[in-house]
Amino acid sequence: MHLKRLELKGFKSFPTKTEINFNEGITAIVGPNGSGKSNISDAVRWVLGEQSIKSLRGDKLEDVIFAGTIDKKPMNYCEVALTIDNSDEKLNIDFSEVTIKRRAYRNGESGFFLNDKACRLKDIKELLLDTGIGKDGYSIIEQGKVDEILSNNPANRRKVFDEACGISKYRYKKQEAEKNLKNTKENLERIEDVYIEIENRIKPLFTQQKKALRYLELRENLKKLEVNNYIREIKKIDNELSEITKQKTILAKELNEKEVLREKMDKNVELANEEIEKLEENISKLNEYIDSIKDVINQNDSQISLINERINNSKSNIENNKKTLGDFELKLKEDNEKLVELQNKRKVDEEAISVLKKEISDIEQKNSQKEQNLNNLTKNLEDLKDNIITYLNEKKDLSNSLSMLGANIENINSRSEVIDNNIADINTSLEQKKSIYKEKEEKVNEIKVELNKQNTTLNNLREELQNYKNENRNIDIKIQNNNYSQKEYSSKLQIYKDMEKHNEGFNRGVKEVLKNKNLSGICGALGQVITTKAEYEKAIEAALGAYMQNIITTDQFAAKNAISYLKKNNMGRVTFLPMNVIKSKRINENTINSKTPYIKIASDLVEFDEQYRDIIENILGRTIVIDNIDNGIKFANETNHKFKVVTLDGDILNPGGSLTGGSLKTSTNILSRKRLISDFEEKIQNIKVENEENLKNKQIIIESISKTRQSIDTYENDINRLEKDIIKQNTKLTSINYEIDSLKQNIEKLQKEKNGLSSNLDYTSNKIESIEQNIKEIELKEAQNKKKIEELSKIQETHNDDFDKEKKQIESLKLDFVQKSEIFKSTEAEINRIKTEMDDTNKKIIDNKNNIERLEKEIENLKNQSQIQMSESENLNKELSKKNKEMDNAQQAKNKFKENINDLNKQLKAFERQSMELRQSEFKIESKLERLSSNKESYTTRLFEDYDLSYVKALELKDDSIEINKKILESIKREIASLGNINIDSIKEYKETKERYDFYSEQKNDLEESISAIEKIIEELEVNMKVQFKEQFTQVNENFKYVYKRLFGGGEGELTILDEDNILESDIQITAKPPGKKMKNLNLLSGGEKALTAISILFAIILAKPTPFCILDEIEAPLDDANIFRFGEYLKELSEDTQFIAVTHRRGTMEAADYIYGVTMEKKAISKVIGLDLHEAHKMTDII
């Protein structure tokens, strides 16, 4: 079994379909950082069931779907398919090629497929259990897996060893069993709660049921008495109502006549009031108009006073403005004189500043050139001094180099002599090691031939054992399913037998008659003596209706005795069918004139004893059974509704045209019970026969399994012995080979070192000559520089004196210039201030003149307005006098109409007194009518509320022979009251609760048995896990010791179970002793040593139980070059049994690979895979 192919579509950086084919050996997947090479190992983890998106370097499920780029749209789904070659049938599935596929959509939907058939993740886990393949196994080893082994968390490290030792499937089964145990216990707790609750309810319900039955009996007697009492009382009330209604009619006529007269008088009063309203409206308008005239006159008077006041204010303002104008003109004259004086002074200051500025500029220009010359001279001097320091440092460095080179020549000559001696010694050791290696290699080959023969036989036996196990498991499943079905059928059978035994479904009276064995001539209920096919049960039950409860008797005498028994014991009513009286009434089918086909006459669809034929045909002989209601309606119409028609769904078309139908209760009917009892008994018997055959086959298979296991144990012991021998020999071979390689490398290193020493000697001699020449040149340059420094220092001193004198003169002139400039600025500011004040004064003079002119015009306008207001007030006073006269006339007319209304109101009061007397009489009559109607309504309401009867329906129960005795009524009511609260539903509820009580009692017993069985299974699993873990862990530890030496080139490594008493949960301690160091705990090793130790453990696990394929994702990244070389060499050895896919960027791993896939990104965020077969590449290189 090996990994054959990986297909990706839409997964992370692989938007288009990408197929990667894998061969046996080592395949390397390489590429630069960020190219997407690790996405390939993520894809394998994901398709094998990884649920943690964080483990795949994402946050949510849609992060594994291609997210899109600028040029390519995002994908809506991703899909990864992993194909495994199963030609060796190591996977328990009948396919030579197994493809596991996983698909996910952006909306969160996802699914797994096995060979393109939808399946569960659980199915895939179970298929791969104990193969080493899976997200938690050791078929995918990444840096995180190495970190798990190195982790301080015992649980992380423990998971790897559990899978390696093959107990993962047992632990999984144990967890499933514990989960089932927990669920079963929870179910038991829930059932016990319900069971106790039902147990507490059933006794009170029995008492309530008994009371309810007595209550119903008393209630029926009370109903007969009370209904007849209510009917008689209602009759009396109806007679009284008829007489009083006549009196009411006479009184109503008299009241009506009075009402007509009153309405005429009301109309006259209404007309008078309307005239008064019109007058009052006119008076109101006149009042409003008069008030408005008065308001206008008052406003005019106020306006005239205000105008006169404004005229006086304007005259006062004119005088004030004239005074202010004189002040402004005087100030303007004074400011103008001061301005002329300041302007003359500014002109003199400006001329003095201009002369001073020119003098400063001439001197500064002359001094600037001198300053530049002085700076250049100073810079030249500093450069020369720096050169002197540089020359001194160079000369010192060269002298030191000369000393070192001389010493180096002596060391080179000494080392060359030592190297020649070492090479001679190593060559002698190398020949000896090669001879020993050849002898060991021949011995290993002989053992391998024998081991292959043993493995072939063992694989055949294991395959045979697996087949036996599968067959045994299938038989167990069959037995378990049969037991479950038998238990279910038995439970239902018992229920139906109990129903048949206790005559469930029949009325109380029917049950009592059937139960009493002392009554002779009782043949049974009609529903008990007939049977029919299941398909006709609904139709026959509907056709029979209440007849199902009828009891067949031999003759009328037997029926009479049974009726007497029922009456005597007050057990209800039953209809009896005496066989000596009832005759057949079967339809003559020739008289049925209908085109619509029907199934049969109902009596022909039932089976019965021939002695009951007359009764059956009397009841069912005139009923037609038809398939559906549509055809039933056609049939009924065609036969003029002469026959009773029943459909298979139980709908009924009655003679005459009425229809009965709707939903039916789903509870088991009386007809089906016998058939169901027979069916369940037959099924139970068949299951028993089948289980006996299964148990015989199981015993044969168990014996075969035992014999095959003994053979396997024998071969496994032989193979284990041979494998240990091979490991022992291989360890020695590896050690010798490592020593040979080490000797060769040492010779090569020494030869390279010698060649390097020779080249170094020539180079050193040439370097000494060059340094001596450089020292002479530096000394000559140093002397020339010192001479130039002395000459330039003298020139610099002369230039400094002249520059200082001119600089002092410039500073004095600049100070004088600043003082004169400040005086000039002050004069300029004062001129500007005066000009601004003069502008303001001119504006104020103009404003004053304008104000005086405006106020004079305003006075003239105000005088004209005052004249107009006085004329308007005079006209308004005339209009006011006119309107006051109109107001007096309207008031007089209003008073006259009020006198007329008073007269009419006196007449109305007299009529009102007479009407009141009549109404009082009418009220008394209506009160009596209402009281009688209320009493009648009370009786009819009580009929309806107490007995759900209308008065018309109650008349059907009228019985004039009944004597209404209040004492009997009160006695019945007292007995009902003494019963207390009655629960009518308790009759039905008790029956249902009793059935539930029996059901939960059986369920409780079943669950208790299941708990015991599961606890036993868990105990057996723990025993098996301990044995297997101990054996496999010992093997892994031995392998680790070997692999550790192999990868480290020596040293020691060991795995220890810290808690031997609890090996299934104990932490695994890892100790290591690298070559040349003491034994240490894993945490005390360096990073590289830790990583190589973890890799040694993983390889030891693969040796103990080789996985078909293994994906290594940059686990060797922390290793140095020497360790990488040993890692690659050992990987080649392991690849003989295990297929490796290595995601890497280390050269040593690439060199060990047989095939290489390069992952690159030609387009941003889109990975592309390019394959290279190194075997073919080497062939092409050899040809070239």
UniProtKB/TrEMBL annotation:
Where, by residue number, does ATP bind? P32, N33, G34, S35, G36, K37, S38, N39
Q: Where in the cell is it found?
A: Cytoplasm
Please tell me one Gene Ontology term that the record gives under cellular component: chromosome
Location of the SMC hinge domain = 520-636
Domain of life of the organism encoding this protein: Bacteria
Q: Name one GO biological process term.
A: sister chromatid cohesion
Mind telling me which SUPFAM superfamilies this protein's record contains?
Answer: P-loop containing nucleoside triphosphate hydrolases, Smc hinge domain, Tropomyosin
Instruction: Give the Pfam families listed for this entry.
Output: SMC_hinge (PF06470), SMC_N (PF02463)
Keywords attached to this Swiss-Prot or TrEMBL record, sorted alphabetically, are: ATP-binding, Coiled coil, Cytoplasm, DNA-binding, Nucleotide-binding
Coiled coil regions, renumbered to chain:
167-201, 227-296, 325-401, 430-478, 677-798, 824-921, 990-1024
A Gene Ontology MF term for this entry? ATP hydrolysis activity
Coarse class of the primary localization is: cytoplasm
Subunit note: Homodimer.
Q: Which family does it belong to?
A: Belongs to the SMC family.
Write down the NCBIfam families for this protein, in alphabetical order.
Answer: SMC_prok_B
Its annotated function is as follows: Required for chromosome condensation and partitioning.
Q: Write out the domain note.
A: Contains large globular domains required for ATP hydrolysis at each terminus and a third globular domain forming a flexible hinge near the middle of the molecule. These domains are separated by coiled-coil structures.
Q: Tell me the protein's name.
A: Chromosome partition protein Smc
Identify the species of origin. Intestinibacter bartlettii CAG:1329
